[in-house]
Specification:
The structure holds two protein chains of two kinds. Chain A has helices spanning 2-20, 23-50, 59-79, 86-92, 94-99, 105-112, 119-136, 142-174, 177-191, 200-209, 217-224, 240-265. By secondary structure, chain A is mainly α. Classes of the chains: A mainly alpha, B alpha/beta.
Chain lengths: 267, 321
């Protein structure tokens, strides 16, 4: 296991070295990241120009939710987001190349194409989270710090599972990237705001059925020291790891079925 | 000992065909339809066939990329798909049109990464790399990013990459495609030497007859997913009566033309004579008779093209006499 991790680390480092050879492109990517991140943030700020609170959450509190969700998403986008390029991997033969090497297929694909260019988003999200915490004037207790570390990690696993599952389904069975994008990015946008903002129907579908509510909103209640305005029990805030594990297991099964499908159909 | 054994190997694909505006029909296509292939350790095998004959599909089943639809297959004593990662350490694969190398990194880095991936002991790795560096002249471009290498340089890198973990079998899918003459010769020379040492089994698919003639004693030809020939290249030519073509340019039209068994005059335009010559015909006698009739200005002999031979093979029609 340790040996395998070392190999993957070498692969990721190689990818970073390769990307670093395109300096100008990398700089432009950082700027592009900033632009996208800024426009997402701007959307929140514009809303709060009109209203003092959203679903009982102030701007500062909302930015904590936003920051937690954005950090989790940026991390998964960095390490797993490239799986959306599945079609390219099949067409260029990278999938075959990976299958003839003595390592796991998914791990190799992720490590070989890790999205170094998307690192900017991680930095901006963490910065925003720190600023929002200061602004919201949240006293940092050990429990809150634990939650602040745990949440983006679970969020990253959860979003990563969504990337893998939807890309696999989209590639092998629906032949369309639209489903993948709408679920993953729709889910990301959903997590950026406190759940009481949404109507019952949306909360049930995205928040509970698909599990996006446990990525940022419920954990943020612990960080902000608030009860759930929707009346949910306090333990819901700690279900993040379980939900992430469940999503990861489901994604792994879907992925394995997808690869098996490829190996029996060649497409 | 048999290092590859495949019996009645099959691969069927379901394809969807448009049948009308919105309707799509499922149709099953057999890419490989019952191939028997037994290869002994140390053999050099040429695996031939026209485009779409099922060569690459066979190779993918032997290397564990694709699951066979039917038949039995064992490579290095392993079942390719269930034991993919174990098998991966014992085989090397070169795809002529795809790269195993890291595009943006110096060639040297790719070799180093492969050492990690295959967990090759450093000393073994260094020894193998040294040998490839000498034989393939890699030193001049080891530090250049792969994306900047010429195709010939890259192919030499690919060959090295496939051999650094000391595979028992080397699978090559069109390794000389698109290479210039010099690079082709470098690749062939290297493979010939590797094959001569006898501890690496080589399975080679190609469209280039010269690759085969230089390297492989045994060739297996498939078409439409079936083996249509398994034997030496000479046997193939003998069986299908393929002919060489000899073009001679003489100062003037000779009064008498050579009349030899297995030699047929195809055309005569002034002093330019074209003969179709059987593989067994005495081509030397033909040349000396031509020299005797007049001043021989130019002479060329072309080998029959493998595509022609295979096309003939598939149609099962003997060569025209």
């Amino acid at each position: 296991m340790a040996e395998r991790l070392r190999i993957y680390r070498e692969l990721v480092r190689a990818q970073v070295r390769g990307q670093a050879s395109y300096r100008l492109s990398f700089t432009l990517d950082l700027l592009g990241n900033l632009l996208f991140f800024g426009s997402d943030l701007l959307a929140v700020l514009v809303v709060f120009r009109q209203v003092p609170a959203l679903g009982g959450f102030t701007l500062r509190e909302t930015l904590v939710v936003f920051g937690l969700a954005a950090t989790g998403f940026a991390l998964s986008d960095l390490f797993v987001g490239n799986i959306e390029r599945m079609k390219t991997y099949v067409r260029t033969g990278l999938l075959d190349a990976v299958l003839i090497r003595p390592l796991g297929v998914l791990g190799q694909l992720l490590a070989l194409d890790v999205g170094v260019r998307r690192i900017g988003r991680v930095v901006y999200s963490v910065l925003l989270l720190v600023v929002a915490l200061r602004a919201a004037d949240v006293p940092l207790t050990p429990v809150r710090v634990l939650m602040l570390v745990l949440t983006p990690l679970c969020g990253a696993v959860f979003f990563g599972a969504f990337f893998i599952a939807t890309s696999t389904v989209a590639f092998w069975w629906v032949e369309s990237g639209e489903l993948s994008s709408s679920l993953t990015y729709g889910g990301r946008d959903f997590t950026a705001y406190p759940m009481p903002v949404y109507g019952t129907w949306l909360r049930r579908l995205f928040g509970f059925t698909l599990g996006f509510g446990f990525v940022a909103y419920y954990p943020s209640l612990v960080v902000l020291g608030r009860a759930d305005p929707l009346g949910g029990p306090a333990w819901l805030s700690w279900t993040g790891p379980a939900v992430a594990a469940l999503a990861a297991a489901a994604a792994w099964l879907i992925w394995r079925t997808g690869v098996r499908h490829y190996r029996s159909t060649g497409s | 000992m048999n290092i590859i054994e495949a019996y009645d190997l099959r691969k069927e694909f379901d394809i969807r065909v448009r049948a009308g505006r919105f309707k799509r029909e499922r149709r099953t296509v057999a890419a490989v339809a019952g191939v028997d292939l037994v290869v002994q350790r140390g053999e050099m095998l040429g695996y031939l066939g026209p485009n779409g004959a099922g060569k690459s599909t066979t190779l993918k089943m032997l290397t564990g990329v694709l699951h066979p639809s039917g038949g039995r297959v064992s490579v290095c004593g392993l079942a390719p798909v269930p034991q993919r990662t174990t098998l991966a350490r014992r085989i090397g694969v070169v795809f002529g049109q795809r790269s195993q190398l890291w595009w943006d990194l110096p060639l040297r880095d790719s070799f180093e990464l492969l050492r990690h991936i295959y967990r090759v002991p450093a000393a073994e790795h260094a020894a193998r790399l040294r040998r490839c560096r000498d034989l393939l002249d890699l030193d001049a471009f080891l530090d250049i990013p792969v994306r900047q290498l010429s195709l010939g340089q890259r192919m030499r890198g690919e060959l090295t990459a496939a051999l650094l973990h000391g595979p028992q079998i080397l699978f090559l899918d069109e390794p000389t495609i698109g290479l210039d003459v010099v690079s082709k010769q470098a690749v062939r020379g290297f493979l010939a030497e590797l094959g001569a040492k006898g501890d690496t089994t080589i399975v080679l698919t190609t469209h280039d007859l010269a690759d085969i003639e230089r390297l492989c004693r045994r060739i297996v030809v498939i078409d439409h997913g079936r083996v249509v020939h398994d034997g030496t290249i000479e046997a193939l030519h003998a069986r299908y009566g393929s002919q060489r073509r000899l073009v001679a340019e003489l100062d003037e039209v000779p009064a008498t033309l050579p009349d030899l068994p297995g030699v047929r005059l195809e055309s005569a335009e002034g002093g330019r004579l074209t003969f179709a010559v059987d593989r067994t015909a005495p081509i030397g006698t033909l040349v000396s008779q031509l020299t005797a009739t007049g001043v021989l200005r130019d002479l060329s002999v072309t080998e029959p093209e493998i595509e022609t031979v295979i096309a003939r093979l598939y149609r099962h029609t003997p060569a025209p006499r």
